Amino acid sequence: QPVYLKNYRPPAYRVTHTELKFDLSPTDTHVHAALHLERHPDSEPGLPLTLHGEKLSLERIAIDGQELQPGEYQVDDETLTITDAPDRLRLETEVVIDPQANTALEGLYLSNGMFCTQCEAEGFRRITYYLDRPDVMATFSTTVIGDQKQLPVLLSNGNPVERGELPDGKHFVTWEDPHPKPSYLFALVAGQLEKVEDRFTTMSGRDVTLQLWVEPENLDKTEHAMRSLKASMAWDEQTYGREYDLDLFMIVAVNDFNMGAMENKGLNIFNSAAVLTHPQTATDAAFQRVEGVVAHEYFHNWSGNRVTCRDWFQLSLKEGFTVFRDQNFSADMNSAPVKRIEDVSFLRTAQFAEDAGPTAHPVRPDHYIEISNFYTLTIYEKGSEIVRMLRNLLGWEAFRQGSDLYFERFDGQAVTIEDFVGCMAEVSGLDLDQFMRWYSQAGTPEIDAYGEYDYASAEYRLTLRQRTPATPGQPDKLPLHIPVRVGLVGTKSGEDLTLTLDTPDGKEDLGKDGVLHLREEEQTFVFTDVAEAPVPSLLRGFSAPVKLRFPYGREDLAFLLQNDSDDFNRWDAGQRLAMLALDDLIAAHRNGVEKVMDPRVTEAFRSLLIEPNDDKAVLAEMLTLPSEAYIAEQQPMVDVDAIHAARNFVKQSLAVALRDEFLALYQANRSDAPYAPDAEQIAQRSLKNVALSYLMSIEDEEGVELARQQFEAQHNMTDVRAALTLLVHSSRGDIADPALRAFGEKWAHDPLVMDQWFSVQVTRPQSDALERVKYLMDHPAFSLKNPNRVRALIGAFAGQNRVNFHRLDGEGYRLLADVVIELNRLNPEIAARIITPLTRWQRFDEQRQALMKAELERIRAEELSPNVYEVVEKALAN
Ligand code: ARG
Ligand code: ZN
């Protein structure tokens, strides 16, 4: 049954204080709850008291000390209802739950013998009966009881206030969290954990203890996360004026976790993959991910916890804003242009694909069946882009004022997206009514642009036309308010020209780079006093999440690649230039015509290589061809084989033509310095490994030898993994096979490294990849119960190995469907995510469409969880 945004009502009761007592045992944990309840002032009178509860076995229920008799309350699979509850009461319940049987990893579960919780969005109702909705905020006091030997560490939110020993070898700790919070921010952890500790003094002088709790063998993998945490705390003070508000902040690493991490108040719980790093086990990308996720969860303390969501339709209120905050943090810590390039590439490949598929939904959905299905790229990444557009429209200073107003006005409350945007409108005086459509309309807007320069009048006329394609349930769209940042690059000078915009109120000076407000379906902007013919640089910094088309010639793109002052657009010009060549080659491949390399692409790359006027990090991005997934997004119909062949052809042609340059680049960026995850070193390694990937694409003898040496040197995981991947993806089994074997033996004890070992093998383009997936599913290090393993093996194969997943015999689809059917029983949230590639059947040829749909039908015939049901129904809807 779908839930609708329009049906929102305040709850009948609110909880002012929650007392919990857990007596932990793997198969029967007793949870005693005492809820201090009172009627909600805004609720409709006479409503019964209805609590959420799932998979609980109720042992006892009492109101104000009086046991209730059967008949005084009703229990079904999802609720407990008390019809004649008083206006104010203390409700006590005692339930028994089975953490060991909890493979869904929602609520209280066991991971490697350790108890932990995941309550967002609706997991708390699997722990106890409660008003499990984010607009019910209470203070919590939690007592955790466990075996002293098995569970020496007992953690929950807030501050520990009491601890002691109990009979039968048990002990307890009581935690108090003074900040009212919704149940989704509750957390409990118990197990054999060890900690590293540090301190942070906040801007007002509060001394905060920082703890990172891990299994003992991971103590040497905590340094980077701790450093990232301190940097995040300092950054949020400097950038947003936000300070931490408890004396203790804890992070715990767990092995079995559905997502990246969770911002529980004072006790963040992390997927071990998003917190543990060591130079020998984690790549640069992993180090950067950890930095970003640590920051993300920490930033939620304000954007999410102090100010939370009224209901789950507002999810992007906290997620979009928090992603925006963590993206800016990472930009400040590393190369800002590269961070932007990475984020936009991800958005344009993965989120645009979601927006174009059957599960497309607005950033604020208006209905859902299963909220866990809505932790999507649209809510997170597009949500962040909307906040970024607000920043672009207001400018940083006004945006910061709006943020201050938001946090001050709504502190301690559960609010809506209107409340957030309202603050931005209030401080800036901007009318943001039309802008709100970004939250209600699904689909990626498309802008068709064209420009004309008139020598005689020295005018440049830029016309922009917008349209948003239909998405399921939304046939017609209205024009959006889109900030388009532009520059005009003079073709003679190669410099940004001054922008003088002709408006009804006279001439407006936009400087050298200005934001146009596109509000109509079609609008023409006239720039006057344009002294020389320009090439327009449009959507600088990717100022809005749209697809922009402009009839650039290849010379224009080569010119922008050389001259644009905007790093992002320089990179994008290179990508567009490569795309034009790729389009031709894809067509040639399909028509069986001989492929010819566009010399302009080769020349553009040559100048990048011989006049290195870029910082290394940006140069590495410029030298990277669009991914197969991105190329696929640009095609009307996806031909996986043609895309693969065309991209390889470009890569190999460049490698042949520029072999010596790539070799020199590799040599120039080698280093024996001790590993550090700093911007400088990361840039150097990525540049070196890009160069190596070109050499390996033609299996150049010297390149192969360098890859072999790089692997053997075992200097750091970034270099080892890069070399191993290139070898395993080549035809040099004589080197790759022993390397893989050595790697697998060396790291058999480390699941996060074995995940990389799985991914490297199942993403190889050779035709045995699918057989390898099947073989590896029986490997002792693999388990369908662990989401990281599933993502590393199944997710990597179905999501990244396009030629093999889309095999014409349908075996790739069948394998994925088999996994979905099993996961549907074990872990519905993961099942509903891993199925994604199958839902995109509309993008492929008829034969593949039929095969993919047949697998979706086969899944539909099963008894489905709401999660998988919702996705499969949408995928088969038309
Ligand atoms: N709020 C968490 C984060 O973004 C994600 C929690 C997702 N939970 C879930 N069941 N899908 O950091
Ligand atoms: Zn988040």
Notable traits:
globular; binds zinc ion; alpha+beta; 28 helices; eight-stranded mixed beta sheet; binds arginine; 878 residues
Helix % is 40-55%
> What is the CA-atom radius of gyration, in angstroms?
28 Å
What's the number of helices?
Answer: 28
Q: Regions with pLDDT < 50 over 5+ consecutive residues?
A: none
Q: Provide mean pLDDT, rounded.
A: 98
What percentage of amino acids are in beta strands?
15-25%
User: Helix/strand-derived class?
Assistant: alpha+beta
Number of strands: 33
Bound molecules: arginine, zinc ion
**Main sheet record:** 8 strands, mixed
Report strand order across the widest sheet.
Answer: 6-5-9-3-2-12-15-14
End-to-end C-alpha gap: 20 Å
**What would the principal axes of the Cα set say about the shape?**
globular
Descriptive report:
This protein is an alpha+beta fold. It contains 28 helices and 33 strands. Helix 4 packs across helix 5 and helix 24 packs parallel to helix 27. Arginine binds next to strand 20 and helix 2.
In short:
By secondary structure, the protein is α+β, with helices and mostly antiparallel strands.
